[in-house]
Structure formats: C-alpha cells, structure tokens
Write a structure and sequence with these properties.
Largest sheet: 10 strands, antiparallel
Structural class: alpha+beta
Radius of gyration: 30 Å
Helix content: 40-55%
Distance between the termini: 93 Å
Length: 509
C-alpha cells in the first residue's frame, strides 16, 4: 500500500521576529545614512570654522560655557535675566543627567573614525564615552531652550552659540549628525519638562484683581517717590526712577526716617511711590492705606515678592502703569497682639511664627559679611536642622509648632514650595502649620521635594479669613515681610480686604 506524499508546510516566523527584522533593517539604514552625512561633513570646507568651532567645543566641556553664560546673565541684575539663567541651568542639569544615566548606557555606539576628519579640526583631548547621543548638544539645546522659554530676548542671544556648539561636535569628528540631532531633541524635551514642573511667568494667570481706576500720572507728575537708602544701590535706583519719570519728586531717606518720610509724601502727592524691598514696601503700603492714596511700587531690594506678584519687574513697568492709570485693588494683612485690638501690624506678603523669624534674624546678621543669597541658604540650613518647637493655642488646644505661616492671599505651589499669588484680593489667609517633633524641618523638606506639602504628616494647610493664636510666651518672635517683632499672650491675624490701590501695568497678550 502506498501513501500520498506529504508536502512540508512552510514555517511562518512569529510576528515578534518580523518586527525585529524590520526594526533592525531600519536601524541599519539610518546608521548608513548617518555615516554618509558624516562623511559629507568631513569632506566639506567650513569657511571660518577652524578658528572658532574647536575652541567653542572645548569651552562647552562639563557645561562650563553655559554656567559662565548664566553667571553673566545673573550679573545684569535683571529679574527676567536671572530667571532665564536659572531655568537654563536647571534644564541643562536634567538633560545632562538623562543623557549620561540613560542615553549613553542604552545605545553603546562607537565614535566616528577620526581618520576621516582633517587633523586641524580634531580635538586635542578625545572623549572616551560612547557616541550616542551627544551630551554637548543636549546641554546646549537644553540651556538655550530653557532661557528662551523665560526670555525670548536672551534666548535669541544664546541660540546661535548653542547651535554652533552642536555643529562643532560634527565638525571636530567626535559625533555623527544623528547623535547631535537626538541629543538636541533630548535637551529641548528636558527644558519643557522643567517648565512643566515650574511654569514660566508667561504661563501664570494675570496677577491682581479687581481692576480699579487710579489717577493717570504721565511722567510721574504729582507723584512723590521715597527711596530707601539702605536697600542697596539706592543712588542708581533713584536715578533710574528720575530718568523714567522726570516729573516725579524723588526723595532719598535713611531707614530710621522712612516711616515719617512716607507719611509726609503720602500727604503731599496724588500718589505715593516707593523704591525698596518688601520691608520698605510694607511701610509704604500702610502709609498709602492710611491716607487713601494709590501706591506705585518700584522693585529695589534683595527680595521683591510683592512687586513680582503684581507683574512689576522694572521701573519701566510701573511707569507704564502710571501713564495709563492702570491699577488693582489689593488686600492688606493685619496682625493684632492682645485682646484690645491695639498696636496692630500689617503685611503685604507673609506673617509667620516659629523658626522663620529666626531665619530672618540669621540672614540679616550674615548678609553684610557674605551677601544676601548665601546668607539665606546658610540660615535655612541652620533652622532646618534644629528642633525649636513653639508652644501656642489654636482653637482652644495647645500645640507644639515648628512653623506657622499666614500668607496674604493664596499662594500657588510652583515646584517644591509656595511661590506666587495669582490673586491679591481674594480675602483669604493662606495658613500653613508645621507641627513640632523630631527634625520636622528635614521631613518637611523631603515632603516638599516629593510633592505637595499636604502629603507630609507634619504639615497642615487651610484657607481662613481670621486666625486667633493664644498662649504665646513673652518675647515670642514674629516675622512679617522680612521684618521681625516680639509679642506675647494673644494674637489675631485677619485681613483688610481691598484696602490698597496699587498701580499695575496692563497685561500683555
């Protein structure tokens, strides 16, 4: 008996094998095209590049070029330039970490063959890491994009340099064009990731409301501006105000005469102007509210939170608002020691009990010796590592508190900590409490870096219109707008809704 012959059934490769085959083919094709483009670049004559690109490539090693650029931008003392520099450095750090921890370890591509590149172009010291992606290109694109997201003007200055650094990596033969393109894409992505965590000024909602009318004072006519001589570079700031507002009366005064001078100025002009930091603005706000005149703020101190939350970064911003009469109503915070409501104090930004007054005291003590920002960092370190519970009564119960913070209006969390206010007339106190215990400062810092402070078991937050605090020991320190005072017994913190009229430049589309 014969059996029919059985034909073999052709085997069908699994779908995963098919995908792997086509992926490999595509990868080889792209790699071949990348090498071809590198050969074209190596053979091409780049006019004028020999004297510039190798030096520029070496200058960008370890991000030194960009750190130098950031320092130069920060030295201009422009708030926008400083923010752009900080955003650029943060974007660079994220891009560099991504490339070095993930990118270069995932794809171990060899460097190009140097023999293809003319000797005069080659770097004296060759990199030893793998080729894909280009770390220099990632850092350059990240820094330039981060700067541009905050300031288009500075971005236009930095972008050509960043492009040249990326091109130099192909010119000197240390990277293929594909390495550079992917590195640049990672850098741009890092800058946008940083923006997702910490929005730029242009992303913030227009600050301050409700809008109100104020006298239009073009050129500063009928405006009296008081400049605090202790705010640093007082003469230069007074000169800048005079240049922008030639019709304004500008008065420079010593800190001990500030309150009296502000009161006289508020009575003499149709509006009161002030140039100084938040502590100076605090006194001016009280004088303006007392005499019922609008306030014009010119940022001129180490910290200018109130001005920045109004969208005022320079003298020209306030000058535009004065010329057009654009203004907003603003709440004024108040704290009143004792049960009788006497000797009230006021704040435009924040009021706090606990370790923050100690931080302010340490910062003010060290600032003359090491500068404002280093003193702030050192003071923060000192209070974060300490255990200084404050005993106080809240709603009839005794509590050990490390910090009690009350903000004038609601602060938004932009990044690891409360930073800006969208609305300066919401009628609310932003109250945040850190309970006492073992190293609550370090636990709070860890919680802040991980996410919203509400996740921390040592932290509590509420929005209130009024807060009563009792049982304060004699000599208890309070801090308000960078100033420090001492109280005891009872304390009431509340608001004067829309007590201030403040000039604010119109919102740009």
């Amino acid at each position: 008996m014969s059996f029919p012959s059985v034909q073999p059934v052709p085997s069908v490769p699994p779908a995963s094998v098919t995908r792997s085959y086509w992926a490999g083919a595509l990868s080889r094709r792209l790699s071949d095209r990348d090498r071809a483009l590198f050969q074209v670049a190596a053979d091409r004559n780049w006019p004028g590049a020999r004297a510039v690109l190798p030096r520029l490539s070496r200058a960008a090693d370890h991000g030194l070029l960009w750190f130098g650029a950031a320092a130069a931008m920060a030295a201009t003392r422009s708030p926008r330039a400083r923010r752009a520099a900080l955003r650029g450095v943060a974007s660079l750090a994220l891009a560099s970490a991504t490339v070095n921890t993930v990118g270069k370890r995932s794809v171990r591509r060899p460097r190009p063959i140097l023999e293809l590149v003319p000797l005069v172009r080659q770097l004296k010291s060759q990199p030893i890491t793998t080729s894909f992606p280009s770390g220099h290109s990632a850092s350059a694109a990240a820094f330039a994009t981060g700067v541009a997201l905050e300031s288009l003007g500075w971005g236009a200055v930095v972008a050509p340099v960043a492009f040249s650094v990326a091109a130099s990596r192909v010119y000197t033969g240390v990277h293929y064009p594909g390495d550079v393109l992917v590195g640049a894409a990672l850098g741009v992505g890092a800058a946008f990731a940083v923006r997702g965590l910490v929005p730029t000024r242009r992303q913030l909602a227009p600050p301050g409301r409700p809008y109100t009318e104020a006298p239009a004072l073009p050129g500063g006519e009928h405006l009296v501006v008081v400049v605090n001589e202790d705010s640093g570079s007082a003469a230069a700031k007074a000169s800048a105000v005079r240049d922008a507002l030639p019709l304004a009366e500008v008065v420079e005064c010593a800190p001990e005469d500030l309150t009296a001078t502000l009161d006289k100025a508020a009575q003499r002009g149709r509006a009161l102007g002030v140039c100084g930091g938040d502590g100076t603005v605090n006194r001016a706000a009280v004088a303006a509210a007392r005499h019922g005149v609008p306030l014009a703020v010119f940022p001129g101190g180490t910290l200018n939170h109130f001005a920045y939350d109004l969208g005022i970064e320079a003298v020209q911003d306030t000058a535009r608002a004065l010329a057009s009469g654009d203004a907003v109503k603003v709440d004024l915070g108040r704290f009143t020691p004792g049960p009788d409501g006497a000797a009230a104090g006021y704040f435009v930004n924040t009021f706090s009990l606990g370790v923050y007054p100690e931080l302010v005291r340490l910062r003010e003590r060290w600032t003359p010796r090491i500068g404002g920002w280093p003193a702030g960092v050192l003071a923060s370190y000192e209070v974060l590592r300490g255990e200084r519970p404050l005993e106080a009564e809240l709603r009839g119960k005794r509590h050990a508190l490390w910090l009690l913070f009350a903000g004038n209006c609601t602060y938004q969390r932009l990044g690891p900590a409360p930073a800006h206010r969208y609305d300066l007339a919401d009628g609310l106190l932003d109250v945040r409490v850190v309970h006492g215990g073992r190293l609550p400062g370090l636990r709070l810092l860890a919680a802040a870096l991980a996410g919203p402070l509400s996740r921390s078991p040592v932290h509590a937050a509420q929005r209130l219109r009024r807060l009563r605090i009792g049982g304060l020991a004699p000599g208890t320190s309070v801090a308000y707008d960078g100033e420090v005072a001492h109280i005891e017994g009872e304390l009431t913190v509340d608001k004067l809704p829309e007590a201030l009229t403040v000039y604010r430049p119109p919102v740009r589309p």
